[in-house]
Amino acid sequence: MRVHTLDLQFQNTPGLIAAYLVESGHELALIETGPGSTLPTLRQALQAKGFQPGDVRHVFVTHIHLDHAGAAGWWAQQGAQVYCHPSAARHLVDPSRLMDSARRVYAERMDTLWGEMLPAPEERVTALADNECIRVGEVQFTAWDTPGHARHHHAFVVGDACFTGDVAGLRLAGSPYLSVTAAPPQFDPPAYVASVDRLLAGNFQQLFLTHFGEVTDVKDHLSRYRQRIEEVHQNVRTWMQQGCTPAEIEKRYGETEHALATATGLSPADWQLHQMSNATGMCADGVRLYVEKNP
């Protein structure tokens, strides 16, 4: 097996969103498609490796957030089989609700950020149950149900490697700062911690993060990320108990994360990259929504 990291150059910026091309025997698998806005870049990256889009017959998406699966329908329309969580399949076949919801959030920025999400032909979408396997060439992809960031989230296990989507967090350019992916509306810290514990028990040698790249200090990364999930949850719960407004919580969340990132040596420029990938205001809303529902 050979794994290629394809940088999708999101918003013309390197190191924010990755897709992974796995060569096995004479077959190819693509893990994550990125948004529709980066599809031209993905196709160019694929061609730079000596392949054409028609060579990709298997596409795995960890979940249906637009930065991970926005271009999945295009690949399905080219004839690739797209594999996803059972709760994600209907949204790939009919992405209209997903797109309408995103458009309400992003308004005039929607097309520039995310582009178009095409519907996938139903027969080209395969929902995988937990622990269900798909063989591609000489390797086997196993779907692990890993909720916490989203209820419809899979990680994909290949031997001693794991393609983690968002369940192992965001870590850009090998930075020691770990940013908790906590976008609303499905952030669920108990489920999240349980998913990270499952990854820890897997004793993987490599993680491949969508945001961004290969991680080899797997046990340390996952152990620290587990703590980070609990930390942001407790911070927001405390601020809510103190009577803070949503705006105050958003401000405190941003200040706390910025101070933590700066303490690890993160530069102001790198902090802005983290904000582009996983904005603290969005994450504060995600954690607050969970605490409101689970006081």
How would you describe what is shown here?
- The structure is a single chain.
- By secondary structure, the protein is an alpha/beta fold.
- The chain has a single domain, classed as Ribonuclease Z/Hydroxyacylglutathione hydrolase-like (Metallo-beta-lactamase, Chain A).
- 41% of the residues lie in helices and 19% in strands.
- The protein is built from eleven helices and twelve strands.
- It has helices at residues 39-48, 66-69, 72-77, 89-93, 96-106, 110-114, 189-201, 218-241, 246-263, 268-277, 280-293; strands at residues 2-7, 18-24, 27-31, 58-60, 81-84, 125-127, 133-136, 139-145, 154-158, 161-165, 206-209, 213-215.
- Strands 1-2-3-4-5-6 form a six-stranded mixed β-sheet. It has a six-stranded mixed β-sheet with strand order 7-8-9-10-11-12, with no helix packed on it.
- Helix 9 packs across helix 11.
- The longest helix is centred in the last third of the chain and has 24 residues, at 218-241.
- The model has no long low-confidence stretch (mean pLDDT 96).
- It comes from Prosthecobacter algae.
Measured by DSSP, the beta-strand proportion falls in 15-25%
* Overall geometry: globular
Strand order of the largest sheet: 1-2-3-4-5-6
Q: Let me know the number of strands.
A: 12
Order of helices and strands: EEEHEHHEHHHEEEEEHEEHHHH
- Under CATH, the topology can be stated as Metallo-beta-lactamase, Chain A
Distance between the termini: 46 Å
Q: What's the CATH architecture name?
A: 4-Layer Sandwich
Percent helix range: 40-55%
CATH class: Alpha Beta
Q: Quick one: CATH superfamily?
A: Ribonuclease Z/Hydroxyacylglutathione hydrolase-like
